[in-house]
Amino acid sequence: MMHKYLLSICLGMGLNFFANGEEAVGDSVQTTYHISGAASVTNNGISILPMFTLGKPATIFDLSVGSERLAFEPQFRFSLEGKPWSFIFWFRYKAVNRSRFRFSIGAHPSVAFRTVNFFDAKGKSVSMLGHQQFLATEWVPTYVVNKHLNLGIYFLHAHGFTEGSTNNTYFLTLNAGISNIRVAKDTYLRFNPQLCMLKMDAKSGFYFSETLTLSNARSPFSISSVVNKKVSSEIAGDDVLWNVSLIYAFNKKLKRSF
Fold this sequence. Notes:
Layout (H helix, E strand, L loop, with lengths): L1 H14 L6 E4 L2 E15 L15 E10 L2 E10 L4 E14 L3 E19 L5 E22 L2 E12 L7 E17 L2 E14 L2 E14 L4 E13 L6 E18 L1
Antiparallel strand pairs: 1-2, 2-3, 2-13, 3-4, 4-5, 5-6, 6-7, 7-8, 8-9, 9-10, 10-11, 11-12, 12-13
């Protein structure tokens, strides 16, 4: 029943995709849309959830298409060998978008790929690409303190409905965004620390992670690094994970009157 509920959220948000972001201009209605995205290459594919961490060089493609309130945001992740890592199809809605307080919700179906090893009828070792399917929802309240600091909570519930996958995953973080730290002309740092609680069926764990990003206002390229440290956990995985990524990003906006 849970996966049917989550799927209905995805479909409902998709069907209402173009119903938001409208404003009246004279006798016409003007709608603002955006098309943005990023392509990144990293030495170590890290996911916020251990079950999706690749653990080797990867490339990630992000896309966001939508209005000011609602967006479709797919993410395609591959190893540098060309094998698919995971495909995620987010629908995200900004329910509250005020100057100080923001609250967004999201839902997605996703597919995670894993290499499965087994022996055939002749006893020969065979490898094949298997997959697991998930549905998830997220709730993201954020309080903007000033142009340099925001504080937030991130909560995600994922349900796996492929045999052998984690049935229920709960992921909760307390996070901060420290941005617009000028280090040189047009060059800025962004720092995002967070405390995380992860529960996967009967197992749980606590983690600390941080993301540091260096960008230049005149360049579409940026450099980012993630460090994820296990504080205390029953969940299998490395005690410390880190990576460095080179990112190319673009963002286009257009307005259409009806």
